[in-house]
Automatic annotation (TrEMBL):
It holds the Pfam family SMI1_KNR4. This is SMI1/KNR4 family protein. InterPro entries: Knr4/Smi1-like_dom, Knr4/Smi1-like_sf. The lineage of its organism: Bacteria, Bacillati, Actinomycetota, Actinomycetes, Kitasatosporales. Residues 27-180 form the Knr4/Smi1-like domain. SUPFAM superfamilies: SMI1/KNR4-like.
């Protein structure tokens, strides 16, 4: 997955999925994308960066179920009590992590550490692409080793999305995620 340069195949897929006459929002343009990046201390991965600049600034029809958000937007159920989002800070995970229902041993893991990790997973190193409802939010990681990968982040845990991580036949990254949705497949179609 090349996060520095968009492939012509990925851009063709995105343009076909979000045609100019579609119901999506107009593209943001290069200047607005650069302004977002400067304000948040990050450079968005390709092909998402070009998608925002040239194809669409979001889409009410998805993906995901409740629409594709712009890079500075959050789902309606996000809540006002969350810390400030910091996309430029490192995304803290490289493997699935489930915090709900985990048997904690007092001498093994401090619950305050888990709360702090959860805050970083929700608020650092990603843009929120949208929600499938009930706090099931799709994040595009923009910093760190998983830059360019999509993660499903919920109140129960966080899981990377793509065939190499299991559970789905989808390709990695933004284009693979959009392709999977456009083909009408269940997100986790390999379970």
């Amino acid at each position: 997955m090349n996060t520095e340069q968009a492939s012509p195949e990925d851009l063709a897929l995105l343009r076909a999925t979000f045609p100019a006459a579609g119901d999506h929002r107009p593209p943001l343009g290069r200047e607005a994308v650069r302004a977002f990046e400067a304000a948040h201390g990050t450079v968005l991965p390709e092909p998402y960066r070009t998608f925002l600049a040239e194809i669409a600034g979001g889409s009410p029809s998805g993906p995901p179920a409740y629409g594709l958000l712009g890079p500075a937007e959050l789902p309606a159920d996000w809540g006002d009590d969350r810390p400030r989002r910091e996309p430029g800070l490192p995304f803290p995970l490289t493997a699935p992590f489930m915090w709900e229902g985990r048997a904690w041993e007092e001498d093994d893991t401090d619950l305050e550490e888990i709360d702090a990790l959860m805050d970083r997973v929700f608020d650092h190193g990603s843009v929120v692409l949208g929600t499938d409802g009930c706090g099931m939010n799709w994040h595009l990681v923009v910093t760190g080793p998983h830059r360019g990968h999509i993660w499903l982040v919920t109140g129960e845990g966080a899981d990377p999305f793509g065939a190499e991580f299991g559970g789905t036949t989808a390709g990695s990254g933004f284009a693979g995620w959009v392709r999977h949705w456009a083909e009408g497949k269940d997100w986790y179609d390999a379970l």
